[in-house]
């Protein structure tokens, strides 16, 4: 069972939510398993809320309020947590699950996957997609992306597999210098086995994931999920049938992609195109 040892409730809204949930549960004389039975989830799931591992959810917050007769206390705290999120609302739940994932497989049709991006690439991309945002907003977004990359690429993080379409190598984001640095960065991560990287060449033709980014996540003790993202929107999918279909499509993308070695060669070739004579 997950125990929130030495949890400082004032570190963030999420830790305060977890500490409050633990306090109310213990005051009611309930174990994590017993509370889980009342709100239809596992005791381990309750432990993840209390440890600030998992992001609070509106539906569970209402059930906690009903169980503890606490008015809208947990619902208000839930809104506070959501408002303080670094990630967009549509991506926040997926961001939480990434921290728990055993493996993450990503397909990116047009851009370099976020966890492979350099700071310069992320900054140029943010400025292009948010032209009215302030420099402060841009830098906050870049920092969040770099923090995510460090977490995922840490040796203790999930196993990573990225398939990117050749278009991601050819579309200039920022400048030729930014792109050259970016492609060298991808090659270095692949070379040091920080992630398994494949490129799907233009010659592979149409494919199921042409319309947006897709992430497949597996876990040690929970069913797999899929996160799909388009422009300014995203969807977390846990329906087993849809997860299976996405897994089949990802397997097809793997088959159509170049081998890791051939992908490295294509990345090296594209890098030369951005080299100033």
Automatic annotation (TrEMBL):
**What SUPFAM superfamilies does this protein map onto?**
lambda repressor-like DNA-binding domains
This chain's protein is named Helix-turn-helix transcriptional regulator
Q: Which Pfam families match?
A: DUF5753, HTH_31
* SMART domains attached to this UniProt entry: HTH_XRE
Q: Which residues form the HTH cro/C1-type domain?
A: 21-56
Coiled-coil spans in chain: none
Q: Which organism is it from?
A: Streptomyces iconiensis
UniProt xrefs under Gene3D superfamilies: lambda repressor-like DNA-binding domains (1.10.260.40)
Superkingdom assignment: Bacteria
């Amino acid at each position: 069972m997950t125990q929130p040892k030495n949890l400082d409730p004032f570190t963030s809204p999420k830790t305060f939510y977890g500490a409050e949930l633990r306090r109310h549960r213990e005051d009611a004389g309930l174990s994590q398993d017993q509370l889980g039975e009342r709100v239809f989830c596992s005791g381990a799931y309750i432990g993840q809320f209390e440890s600030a591992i998992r992001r609070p959810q509106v539906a569970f917050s209402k059930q906690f309020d009903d169980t503890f007769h606490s008015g809208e206390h947990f619902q208000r705290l839930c809104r506070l947590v959501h408002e303080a999120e670094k990630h967009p609302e549509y991506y926040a739940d997926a961001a939480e699950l990434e921290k728990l994932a055993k493996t993450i497989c990503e397909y990116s049709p047009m851009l370099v996957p976020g966890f492979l991006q350099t700071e310069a690439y992320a900054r140029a991309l943010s400025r292009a997609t948010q032209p009215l945002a302030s420099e402060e907003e841009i830098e906050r977004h870049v920092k969040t992306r770099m923090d995510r990359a460090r977490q995922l690429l840490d040796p203790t993080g999930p196993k990573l597999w990225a398939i990117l379409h050749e278009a991601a190598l050819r579309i200039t984001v920022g400048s030729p210098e930014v792109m050259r640095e970016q492609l060298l960065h991808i090659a270095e991560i692949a070379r040091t086995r920080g992630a398994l990287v494949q490129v799907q060449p233009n010659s592979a033709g149409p494919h199921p994931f042409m319309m947006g980014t897709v992430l497949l996540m597996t876990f040690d003790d929970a069913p797999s999920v899929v996160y799909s993202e388009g422009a300014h929107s995203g969807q977390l999918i846990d329906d087993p049938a849809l997860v299976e279909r996405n897994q089949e499509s990802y397997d097809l993308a793997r088959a159509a992609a170049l081998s890791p070695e051939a992908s490295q060669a294509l990345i090296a070739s594209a890098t030369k195109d951005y080299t100033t004579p």
